[in-house]
Amino acid sequence: MMRGAPSEARQRLLSTATAVFYADGIHSVGVDRIIAEAKVTRATFYRHFPSKDDLVVTYLQEVHQMERGAITAAIAAHSTAADSLLAVADTIAGMIRRPGFRGCAFLNAAAEFPDPAHPVHQQIIAHRQWFLDTLTTLMAQVAQDSSDAAARHFVMLRDGAMAAGCLFDPALVVDTFLRGVEGLVRIHGERRPATAG
After folding, report:
1. Does any domain span residue 197?
2. 31 lies in which domain range?
3. Taking the model in full, what pTM does it have?
4. For residues 175 and 151, what is the distance between their CA atoms, to the nearest angstrom?
5. Would 123 disulfide with which of 60, 67, 113, 157, CB 3.0-4.6 Å?
6. What is the CATH number of the domain that holds 78?
7. What tens digit of pLDDT does each residue of 48-62 get?
8. Cα 108 vs. chain centroid, distance in angstroms?
């Protein structure tokens, strides 16, 4: 059975939720506000999203797809792993520079949904695992023997930049982050063994 395009009401609900969850936090935004701002009925809301948690999971899936698309495009535009890693950093820097930036949607959600068994928390972990796997694959082409540690280091730099980017001058945060990633890629590249294993 072929699925049709998402309904206009569902898209409105998701767009509204994406904006208000990111701007104001998930727990502080009630279903009534989303229904009012999306201009749909309560019945329409529950027809598309049986619970608020279902909407939150879908919101994070939507953010994941947007970030994945941007990072995949950045990687595809470069021919070397080192350049791709720098391009991923540039993409993240672009997110931090955007007006209305309020940190990482996934880290923000993690603070509100700490239970590892909760579907929202599981969505957060899935996104972070995808990001770490993507970086590890690229880092393995730069320095196979240290790719796991280097990828984890990149993730920590990214997390710090995302947290600091909404607290301090984004330009300074971005500059520090990009220098950090550039140094990370260079150092691990210089450690590459002379002969491939």
Report:
1. no
2. 1-50
3. 0.90
4. 19
5. 60
6. 1.10.357.10
7. 999 999 999 999 999
8. 11
